[in-house]
Amino acid sequence: MGSWNPPGTIVSHELNILLVGPRRTGKSSTGNTLLGQGSVFDTRGGVASTAASAITAGHQVTVIDAQGWGSSQESVPRDEKIELMRALSLCGLGGPHAILLVIPLLDFTEPERRAVERRMELLTPSVWRHTMVLFTCGDLLRGKGLSAEERIRSGGPALQWLMEKCRYRYHVFNNKASVSGEKDGKKAGGKQEQVIELLGKVEDLLQENGGWHFSLHMYQRMEEEWCRREQRLRAQLQAETAVGGVRTNQTTAETKINMEQRSETEEEDEEEEGDCPRKGQAKVEERNRGEDEEEGERMELSSLSSEEEEWDVSSDSGGEREESDDVKTGLMAPFRSNGGLRLALSPIRRPEATKDRKTVFNAARVN
Question: Considering the entire predicted model, what is its pTM?
Fold first, then answer.
């Protein structure tokens, strides 16, 4: 790593700046302009990543010129990945304070956009927080009489995407400008003035990030931690959703069971209500049958009592009457089928009354 410190320069603090971008974009020339020297970096291209430092505009500036990448859109070649990681390691343990993506202020096409996206993805999505677009070929823009804002507004979707990624942080460089800014008697933005303005924007970018430089390992660890947290949150959410689904299913099943039990109870109640009239009618019929049987028994007893009275007052002889009474007594004795009523009324004969009548009859015969 080379360095060049002009004598008598007061240094405020150190800045590490990483230059990345495609080939033939003026990236190495931009590094030379930043350091304020002739040819620290080889502008012919194709060389490996290189680092150099110098004191410029009151800052100790270290510039790392990463090897330019190709135009591959779908995948990044292995050698380009290695060179990009090597350039990042040249920034030291702290990493770069700012990453300058060098792009010509010309037509930025969709294939170029995809190539940039594939390379920047290697440095994690957080790299865009530390990235600023450095447009080269500012002299061509001035020749057309356009400002940088007008050129950006008239750019296509690819350029708008790039601006949004970098949060519209950009700077325009004219690497062909003179050091003093005087050319053909006209006042123009000199290299020194461009460098001072650029370093001021780098300071603002550093302040936006809280003074933090870009650290690939730090962001990788952060992203890993974020991924783990996201996975835990997703697993927790899925578990809660599953538990809620189980509870919902249980509640639904319980509700269904309760509804079925209620339906069965209602059906049983309806059946009981339907059976009640039939049961009541059966009870009434049974009670009526009992009353009919009792009435029949009473009528039978009345008939028997009448017959007995008729036999008592008949004018037959005593022997016949006794035989009749005996027969009647023998015939009546078995009729005790209904328990209490027949037993209570048996025997049917009236022995005392019959004896008295026999005595009277015998007395009459003697006389």
Answer: 0.58
